[in-house]
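Hi C.,

You asked whether I'd gotten around to modeling the 457-residue construct. I have! Everything is below, sequence then structure, no commentary in between.
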Amino acid sequence: MTKRLLSMGLGLGLLAAGAAALAQEPAAAAAVADAAAAAAPAAAAAAEAPAPALSAGDTAWMLTSTMLVILMVIPGLALFYGGLVRTKNMLSVLCQVFVIFSLITLLWAVYGYSLTFAGEGNFFGGFGKIFLKGIAPDTLAGALPTIPEYVFVAFQSTFAAITVALIVGAFAERIKFSAVILFSVLWFTFSYIPMAHMVWGGGLLGKDGALDFAGGTVVHINAGIAGLVGSYMLGKRIGFGREALPPHSLTLTMVGASLLWVGWFGFNAGSAGAANGIAGLAFINTIVATGAATISWLAAEALHKGKASMLGAASGAVGGLVVITPAAGLVGPMGAIVMGLIAGPVCLWGVSGLKKLLKVDDVCDVFGVHGVGGILGAILTGVFCASSLGGIEPANFNMGHQVWVQVKSVLLTIVWSGVVAGISYKICDLVVGLRVSEESERQGLDITTHGEVAYYR
């Protein structure tokens, strides 16, 4: 009984002391109560927020998209370009595209992915994931937390590879194979990687608010400018402007263009990063913009030349694919159609009127289609992403400001790619030489460089 009374007395004493302390410090008590009240909703929200988890559907779609982009490169791009050159250079173009794809995907795994997506510099990432360090089968991608990081690495490697491969169409039929390889390493390292980081990896252009859903600046303008510079630095083909240098197989070019269109669904819709509504939007936009550009190119061609050509249809389709790339998941289908209708005649001018003004021998019209179409698409993205035009505009959207941001991203890409390309070509010229001999060019690169021919008679 005595112990019980002592315990009760001690408890009452402590309560009294606590009450006295609270009475003496009411502000402190209120602060504690307020802090607890403020923390409660945050704790509840944290508890309710789902942790990143693997999605089988998203993973399956991204694996499929990766394979579709590979289809774009080999065989799509290879056949598209191969059909546009002469018979004696067919295999050289196929080989260049095939080997570039193999080379760049290796470099991407070794250091490209890390310098693009690891780190937060304005122009380059870091070496935190060099040799894919720290990535395991159960590691989820930081940018796309519902898919394995290995899948994200693979998907992005195809973008890097096709961007470099696009350039070969500009200097086809006259460049040394060793120069192609050395140039690819240099330009990939110092132009593709920083441009991809600046736009998609948290770098300068991304911070500025530039919109590029699937690669208008990173892929098409970047490659188009490098191709234009290469055309100038290698000079014109023997006989250019004095004799006909027609494509040897528009049949193969049409097949290549068709494979490009099919593969582009992985390129654009895959850039949604998940099997969701944005992927569906990018998918339908890739259909309608491309169809619109094909029709408008042929209409303009028929008005200008009196005939609509198969080459025009294929080129118009590629122009439409290029122009919708930066906007695929950001504009509505009607906006995509308008963009495609504009792209057809603009890209037609790019491969005809502008090409004559520039006096350049861009064999497969890399700049006329990819450069011009990429510039057009990047700028129009700032217009048609407006919700009033059916698009998905960013927060605090102002059309005039967004168009200016897009223009700045275009200008930076042109300067960056042009400077890097010029320096890279010059290094190649000094180290291995850029152009084959006149005799080799006349015989064709298939036999003189690779010791084989595309067709036996």
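If it helps when you're writing up: The two ends are 117 Å apart (CA to CA).

Thanks,
B.
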